[in-house]
């Protein structure tokens, strides 16, 4: 299995999508001989699907086609060399994946045929068992359906631990702690901007363009920050580095 789970699509000083992860992605493309990819853009609500595909084509140097043109989306996934799932609204993305019958085809492509999966923001969220740790507003009336479950632990992308002056609502830490209190058997990995988790075969690694760590939230345990994935060895069935 080959997964790139990115907190976000780009950094403020980067003109290209996935720029901070490009070196890692290009190495994977070379290993897998990737020349094309299918984009699943359903998370985008106020952006053009084809424009996003073109941006990715320019950034990655491969042919990128948006799945919204397909009459039979599941068949497109069956032929895909690589799957790209864009950021945007996680609720809309997960709903459309179910409506278009793509949950099982994507799971089979990634797990059985080893098709690489690259997802950022919402695309990262839907790779986990559920979207309950998304930061997004539920703009549709969809129920909380299961997501792809390619990665077995919940992730909170776009994680930030800053407390804005004058903001009287709960902090991100408090919201994640609430999730863990309601779901004490589950853990949450918090990914800061410019960071990613990479599953390659049975190996898990972590990269941060800013040299920052990730946090792990567990109910009843102190929340700590880590720089490598060995802290996740008790939670995940991978060789953590």
Written overview of the protein:
Belongs to the peptidase S51 family. This protein has a single domain, classed as 3-Layer(aba) Sandwich (Rossmann fold). The longest helix is centred in the N-terminal third of the chain and has 12 residues. It has 241 residues and is of the alpha/beta class.
Short description:
InterPro entries: Class_I_gatase-like, Peptidase_S51. By secondary structure, the protein is of the alpha/beta class. Helices cover 27% and strands 23% of the residues.
CATH classification class: Alpha Beta
- Please state the structural category: alpha/beta
Q: How do the helices and strands follow one another from N- to C-terminus?
A: EHEHEHEHHEHEHEEEEEE
- Second rung of CATH, namely the architecture: 3-Layer(aba) Sandwich
Distance between the termini: 16 Å
Strand content: 15-25%
Q: How are the strands of the biggest sheet laid out side by side?
A: 3-2-4-5-1-8-9-12
Instruction: Return the average pLDDT rounded to an integer.
Output: 94
Helix content: 25-40%
Task: For this entry, give a set of tags.
241 residues; alpha/beta; Rossmann fold; eight-stranded mixed beta sheet; four-stranded mixed beta sheet; 23% strand; Class_I_gatase-like
Q: Layout of helices and strands, plus pairs?
A:
Elements: E1 2-6, H1 22-32, E2 36-40, H2 49-60, E3 63-66, H3 73-79, E4 83-85, H4 90-99, H5 103-112, E5 117-120, H6 122-125, E6 154-159, H7 172-182, E7 187-192, E8 195-200, E9 203-208, E10 214-218, E11 224-226, E12 239-240
Parallel strand pairs: 1-5, 2-3, 2-4, 4-5, 6-7, 9-12
Antiparallel strand pairs: 1-8, 7-10, 8-9, 10-11
